[in-house]
Amino acid sequence: MSNKRKHISNIRHLTSDIRRRAPIVPDLLQSELRLVFCGTAPSRISAREKAYYANPGNQFWHALHRVRLTPRLFHPQEYPKLLSLGIGLTDLCKTCSGNDDELPPEALEREALKKKIRRYKPKLVAFTSKNAASIYFGHKVEYGLQNETLNDTQFYVLCSTSGRARRFWKEEVWRELADIIRLDKTAKLR
Fold it and tell me: Closest by alpha carbon to 88, among 26, 43, 46?
């Protein structure tokens, strides 16, 4: 077998192995949520804690509370309680953890996310970074409400809450999302 064929065979095996793994942090999804947050992948700390956005330097939970999407500050281990608020959580990569630049491209499952959106029919999916949204859409994106839809689901792109992305932080982007969700702007959402 040539080196090229061995390499392709190894990639196929790795891809198959990655997709067979159990999710590091399970999806928090149910039918017709008003909002689903989608990240790229769990951080190493989130993987260890088995909870979304568990790194103490990540501002996700603080941002949710500051923009009043949650009535109080939730701790990462309380993430299942978001369902009662009509909020869900998922990632593009469910089986690997780490920084975006460390993830194997074959672990980023755009099609799996599309299937989840078709199945659960959330009103809006908010990507928690431009990188996650760009991977999903296959092109560069700007912050805010996107023109693309999937059936009746709309998409929104947020700035990352990661401590590594602090210089790109714009709370007004999160506030705009919260206003859309809170006011249930039916002209924009369904």
Answer: 26
